[in-house]
Design brief:
This protein is an alpha/beta fold. It has a single domain, classed as Aldolase class I (TIM Barrel), CATH 3.20.20. Helices cover 35% and strands 22% of the residues. An 8-stranded parallel beta barrel has the order 1-2-3-4-5-6-7-8, surrounded by 5 helices. The longest helix has 13 residues. The radius of gyration is 16 Å and the shape is globular.
């Protein structure tokens, strides 16, 4: 199981700071983008994020209504993968095609109440599935433990498709998440809001390797 640190920034100064922090302890990170439309919160724009040069390989988690517009701003940058939300768009295949045309890996993110059957027809064109275990960008949203059962159902039917979790991942619930053997987990607040993000990342890694 891989640990992917998640960068969530409301402005470019914080984004630069977190990118620099991440560079000290990892070579790969996820960046959350929010537009104030698909979810109520907003983050640094993809145009500003693209200005920041980094040695990190990045993936984008696009919690936005128009993922294609965000993808256009990220083309030719450090971003190597993009997740878009199943619930945000109607023409899913067009988004997948756009990601492929940019030579990026394509992933789909699934809100807690979306079923496996809802998106199963899209799986042939995808590299990864991101199961959200909280409601996206809803402060205080509870951890939806039932998503673990949905994940197991998915993996039973599609064992060769990479899949993992994002949302509310903490040290104190890592054991139950590891119990269903995801390919990766994404953690943001538990790492970057810690007094020493590098030490928090290392503690996650220690528990995973244990």
């Amino acid at each position: 199981m891989r640990l992917i640190p998640v960068i969530l920034s409301g402005n470019i100064e914080d984004y630069r700071h977190k990118i620099a922090q991440a560079e000290s302890f990892t070579g790969y990170a996820q960046v959350d983008f929010m537009d104030g439309r698909f979810v109520p919160s907003t983050t640094v724009s993809p145009v500003r994020a693209a200005e920041v040069k980094t040695k990190l390989r990045l993936e984008a988690h696009l919690m936005v209504k128009d993922p294609v517009a965000y993808l256009e701003a990220l083309e030719g940058t450090s971003f190597v993968k993009a997740f878009f939300h199943y619930e945000a768009v109607k023409d899913h295949l067009a988004v997948i095609e756009q990601i492929r045309d940019m030579n990026m890996q394509a992933g789909i993110a699934i809100n807690p109440h979306t079923t496996v059957e809802d998106f199963s027809e899209l799986l042939e064109g995808l590299d990864s599935v991101l199961f959200l275990t909280v409601d996206p960008a809803v402060y205080g949203s509870p951890f939806h433990v039932e998503v673990l059962e949905k994940f197991l159902k998915f993996k039973d039917s599609y064992p060769n498709i990479e899949a993992g979790f994002d949302g509310g991942i903490m040290l104190d619930n890592l054991d139950i998440i590891m119990g269903v053997s995801p390919d990766f987990v994404c953690a943001g607040h538990a790492i970057f809001d810690a007094p020493e993000p590098d030490m928090a990342f290392m503690e996650f890694e220690r528990l995973i390797k244990r």
